[in-house]
Design brief:
The chain has 254 residues and is mostly helical. It contains 11 helices and no strands.
């Protein structure tokens, strides 16, 4: 019996005619489940080195990733999963390895804590890596058993990145750097449109465009917001803003 991942924590039974490679692999699984990480790593490396052409060599490499993931050594886990994909392309567990790479990045995504800065303020590099990894996995394996959860995490990453871009745009607006805010907001709509933040983005975009004297563009942004998200809280503000703009006294030319 070949076991490719350890989520179930059930030690596989030896085959009737178990080879030495299988026995050593099962030994590694048992050690891993007992949290004897150094011994498990040694056992899996032994399978790879002594039985490189066995089916269990590939699974041993995959399990090395599982050990590091379980230890929460996520950088090492990514390296192990990537080696699996490199040396065993087309393996039946490739979707799982790609999923675990994405999960390893996702586990490092900053969390919200009351005593720390908001997550939107923090560096988002690992979020981008997670987003890319989930995207690659879903593109290659859209029908994988892990696709549903991967898609949910992919959406979370997009939302987090959109929130970060909105935070930066607000930062620019507070400092009257509306050109920079507009550029950031327009890029956010392009890159993360549909992530759930579109009403807020359109509202902020209209504010900066209006400040810059780009009245027609501001009106377009407000009308798009009202049409696409009529029941959103931002739509109510947009209607007030739009009415104010339309009844604003025209400035006489010099």
């Amino acid at each position: 019996m070949i076991q490719g991942c350890s989520a179930s924590r059930v030690i596989p039974r030896l085959s009737d005619n178990a080879t030495d490679a299988e026995k050593q692999y099962i030994k590694g699984i048992s050690l891993f489940y007992d949290s004897m990480y150094p011994e498990a790593i040694a056992a899996f490396n032994d399978v790879k080195n002594k039985y490189p052409y066995s089916d269990f060599a590939a699974l041993a490499q995959l399990q090395l990733g599982e050990v590091e993931y379980d230890k929460r050594e996520f950088t090492a886990a990514v390296d192990a999963y990537q080696l699996f994909l490199k040396y065993y392309p087309g393996h039946q567990k490739s979707d799982y390895a790609m999923y675990r790479i994405a999960e390893s990045y996702f586990e490092q995504v900053p969390s919200e804590w009351w005593f720390l800065p908001p997550a939107a303020e923090k560096d988002q590099a690992v979020v981008r890596r997670a987003l890319t990894a989930y995207h690659e996995m879903l593109t290659q394996f859209p029908n994988s058993e892990y696709a549903k959860e991967a898609d949910e995490k992919h959406k979370i990453c997009r939302n987090r990145l959109a929130d970060h871009e909105i935070y930066v745009a607000r930062f620019y607006q507070k400092r009257n750097k509306d050109e920079a805010a507009v550029s950031r907001l327009q890029a956010t709509l392009t890159d993360y449109g549909g992530a759930g933040s579109d009403p807020e983005i359109l509202q902020l975009l209209a504010i900066s465009l209006d400040r810059l004297g780009k009245t027609e563009e501001a009106i377009d942004s407000l009308e798009q917001l009202i049409k696409s998200y009529p029941t959103s809280p931002e739509a109510l503000k947009a209607r007030v803003h739009l009415q104010e703009m339309r009844f604003r006294p025209m400035t006489s030319p010099p």
